[in-house]
Specification:
52% strand; globular; 11 strands; 4-stranded antiparallel β-sheet; mainly beta
Length: 122
């Protein structure tokens, strides 16, 4: 059992930056693929970015590529999402997720956090 808790969300103006954190407790997630998804009201949950267990491989959705950086610290059991040049369309509830197998882009992650709200004003 792995429990994930996101933090770091908030209100930021367009062009600003924000860093989200996802802290894991329980079983270590050292060998887990980790990802960030987001969901705006009335919209489908969408893939944002993912990182392999070693941190050597990362993947980004086209909508955020070049503006965000995903990273992880396995010793701290924490994953991060550094977001820069934020846009109003980035406004959403951001979820961290983890799984031990399966495609990184697939939403069938086994563990999910409760979400942290990111609001970008224009």
């Amino acid at each position: 059992q792995v429990q994930l808790v996101e933090s770091g969300g908030g209100l930021v103006q367009a062009g600003g930056s924000l860093r989200l954190s996802c802290a894991a407790s329980g079983r270590t997630f050292t060998t887990y693929t980790m990802a960030w998804f987001r969901q705006a009201p009335g919209k489908e949950r969408e893939f944002v970015t993912a990182i392999s267990w070693s941190g050597s491989n990362t993947w980004y959705a086209d909508s955020v590529k070049g503006r965000v950086t995903i990273s992880r610290d396995n010793l701290k059991n924490t994953m991060y999402l550094q977001m820069n040049s934020l846009r109003p369309e980035d406004t959403a509830l951001y979820y961290c997720a983890a799984k031990s197998e399966g495609a990184y882009y697939s939403p069938d992650y086994r563990y999910w956090g409760q979400g942290t709200q990111v609001t970008v004003s224009s």
